[in-house]
C-alpha cells in the first residue's frame, strides 16, 4: 500500500492540508488534515495519514475524510478522525466511533477558589478515589437487573436523575440532553449487558480520569461569563465512557459487519474499517445499539458526578457549596446531522472518533446562557499539564462538519511510555508541583505520563488559529484520579 509522504500533501490554507483524491485510485474523496506544519511533521511519524486515506474509500463518504491536530493511529479510523457519509444509504462503520462508545468529558463548576482548597488537595484526591471506583473491569455499588439495564440504555442520564443521582437541570447542559432517542436495547447482546450491569458510576482504566483543576487563565471574558467560569475557580473534569458494555457492542458488530460486507459488494483496503449501508438491517441494528451504549455512558458520567459531589461534601461540608454541571460532550459517536451541501440542506451520518462536536452560536440544542456564544468544547490535556475550555464557531460547520479536537493526542504508545517512565518518581515529581495523583497501579501512571502526549498548547492554538473554535480558559490540575 502506497505510503503518504510529505510531498504528497498540499496546503489549502493556513492550518488546513489535503492529500488529493488522485493520490490513490480507490479514494472517493480527498483526505484533509487540520494542523500546523510542526504538528503535521509529528503526525507523519505513525500510520495516521495512511488510515485517513483508507477512510476516504468508504462508500457514500462526502466532501473529505478529516483528522484533527491531536490525531494518532487507531483501529481502522485514526483517532481524531471525522467522516460524514450521505444519509441514508452511505455506510456506518463502528471503527469510526471506536470501542469506547460515547467516551466523553464533562466539567463541573464549584464556588471555591484555589486558595480555599490549598490545604485540602491531598485529602480531596483520596476522598474522590474512595468514592469513585476506577480500574480495569472494576464494578461500582449499583447492581442493575436486566430490566433496569434496559431502562438505562433507553433513558440515558434521565435514569440517573430519576433515581436521585443528579438534578433535572443537568440534562439541559449535556449534548443531546444525555439521551439519544433511537436507542434500542434489544440490539445489544446479553454479554454486553452483563459486562455493564455493575459498571455505572465507574471510570475504568486507560486514559480515563477524574481531575480537580482551577481556572488559570481567561482568554475571552464574555464567553467565560456566559459559561460561569472565572479566574482561580476550582472545577472538576471527568473523562470516561460506556465501559465494557460499549466495548462489547463494538466487538459484536464489527464481527457482524466483517461477515456482511460482501453481501453489499463492499471491498475495503483495511478490514478494520468494516461497514455496511446505514439503512441496511445490520446498519440499523448497530446504530440503535450504539445509541443505547451512548445513553449508558451519559448515565455513567452523571452518576460519577454525583459521587464526586459526595466526596466534595465529605471534605468541605457546607462550605464547599456543591458542584454544578457546566457541560458534557461526547467524542466517540455517530450522529445524523444536517449541513448545507452545494446550496441544499442534506442529512449526513457524521462519525466522530476522538473528535468533539463544536457548534457555533445559535445552535438550538444549547442551553439558553450558551446560545449567543456557542457550544462549550472541553479539551483535556494530560496528567500534569493544562486542559482547555473553548467555544465552537460557525466555521467548524463549514470545514470540519462541526467538529474539533478532543485532547492532546498520544505521541507514545502505552508500551513505549512504560519503558521510558519511572512511575513512582513521576508521582513524587507531580506532588512537588502540587498535583496529587491517586491511581490503582504505577502501570497506569506510566502509561498516561505527560511525555506520552503531544503538547496540548500547540494542539489548541492550532484549533483557535484555524477558526473552528475559540479559546476561553486554561485549566491547571491539582488532583488526578486514575484507574
Describe the overall structure.
By secondary structure, the protein is of the alpha+beta class. It has one domain (6-411, 453-482): Alpha-Beta Complex (tRNA-splicing ligase RtcB). It is 32% helix and 25% strand. The protein has helices spanning 37-43, 48-55, 114-117, 121-131, 146-155, 157-162, 190-196, 221-227, 243-260, 281-316, 394-399, 414-420, 423-432, 442-447, 456-466, and strands at residues 10-13, 16-19, 31-34, 65-72, 79-86, 91-92, 104-113, 209-218, 233-240, 276-277, 324-330, 332-341, 344-353, 355-357, 376-379, 387-392, 403-405, 436-439, 469-482. The strands form 4 sheets. Strands 7, 8, 9, 11, 15, 16, 18 and 19 form an 8-stranded mixed β-sheet that branches. It has a 7-stranded mixed β-sheet with strand order 1-2-3-4-5-13-12, sandwiched between helices. A two-stranded antiparallel sheet has the order 6-10. Strand 4 (65-72) and strand 5 form a beta hairpin. Helix 7 (190-196) packs antiparallel against helix 9 (243-260). It is globular and about 65 Å long. It starts with 9 loop residues before the first strand and ends with a strand. The mean pLDDT is 95.
